[in-house]
Structures are given as structure tokens and as C-alpha cells.
Design a protein that fits this description.
The protein is of the alpha/beta class. The protein has a single domain, classed as Vaccinia Virus protein VP39 (Rossmann fold, 3-Layer(aba) Sandwich), CATH 3.40.50. The protein has six helices and ten strands; from the N terminus they run ββααβαβαβββαββαβ. The chain has helices spanning 28-31, 50-61, 80-87, 100-112, 168-180, 212-215; strands at residues 7-10, 18-21, 70-74, 92-97, 116-119, 138-143, 155-159, 184-189, 200-209, 219-227. A hairpin with a 7-residue loop joins β1 and β2. The longest helix is centred in the middle third of the chain and has 13 residues, at 100-112.
Amino acid sequence: MTRPTTQLMPVPLVPEISLYLVAEPVGLFDLAGGEFRSDEPPPFWAFVWAGGQALARYLLDHPAEVAGLRVHDEATGSGIVAIAAALAGAADVTATDVDPAAVQAAHRNAVANGVNLGTGDDAGRGARPGTSDDAGRGVNLAASHDAAGGAGVDVLLAGDVFYSPAVAPLITSRLRAARKQGVSVLVGDPGRGYFPEHLFEQVAEYVVPVPAALEDAETLATGVWRMR
């Protein structure tokens, strides 16, 4: 799969953050060359998804949710949620994604937003500390299949992760395990088909601008949800 061409642009719902995104009106399947391969994840990171936008907006509008706390962003994609957590004043932010290309993209996006971070030396083994001198402005990033769970984490974040029957149960299990350990869990979701709404309570809703080629709509009503 050819790496898509991106350009730096402000996020529609979160203009405080700019990301390297695909500028052309193209869908994920087309961008992947008309096929999805099991050995090469689709370039989810080249788009800013509705759930990630909503969750990032919520964190910047409600910094007390993460300020001074240890935060983990699961399935970080473009890195928008991790970046928002850092800008909102989180004491420590970690982020993981199964796709190494997403980790690279998130790193590039973080730098573009003045957020310094370290990249993991080995998949699943964590990451070097960020290099920022300012608390809340560093993110540790790694390519990993493992969430942070509840170990050393106060808040677990996930933006738009309930998009498939294969992924949703795995993510849900990780989030529930963290919640049982007392971790606060916040997710952003625009009503994806595999979102387990019964496990959450809604704390905010946004009308999120989205690429029509990606969602077959120009906006999506998207909730921010707290796990019960």
C-alpha cells in the first residue's frame, strides 16, 4: 500500500490542533488502493474521525478531566486525542496503536502542535520519556497491541474505536478491565454499529464536520461517553 499524501490542516471541530491529513475527497477504501490486507492496516491515521474530534474537543473544553493526571490514549490513530490531553495539562500521556504507521503519523502531528514525545524502541515495550520540559506537553508513544490497562493510569481515552465486530469486543474488554481498577474511561463515538452504549453514560454531544467521501455525510452527531 502506498503511503497517502497528506498536508497540515486545522481540525474542523478542534482548530487549536492541526494534523497531517489527506486533503483530497477520498474514502478509506479508495485510499487503501481498493483492497484491505490483513498484513497491512488501512491508513485510519490519515483521517480525523468524528469520535476523535469530539473527544479532543471535550478535553480542551473540560481540562479538569485530565489535568495533572496520567492518561493513556488507546488506538491513537492520528494522535489527536493524545495531543489534546497533553495540551489540556495531563501530567503524563501515553498512546499506542497497532499500526506502526499510525505511531509515525501521531509523532509528526504531535511535533506540529508543540507536543514533544518519545517513540517506543520495541512494539509493546512502552516508550522513552518525552523530552518536554513543561508538564503536560509530552506524550510517550509506542506501537503495541496492548492497552495500558489500569497500571499507572488515571484516565483511559479512546476515540472512534467501535467500528468493526472484530475490534469492538477487544477494545471493550480492555476498557472494562481498566474501569474495574478505578480508571476513568472516556470515549468518543458517533453511533457506530458496535458501540456498547449500555456500558456508558453520555457527558457531551457535538455536531462534527466530517469528509463526505468518508462518512456519506457532512456532519455527524457524536457523543462523548463515560464508562459506568
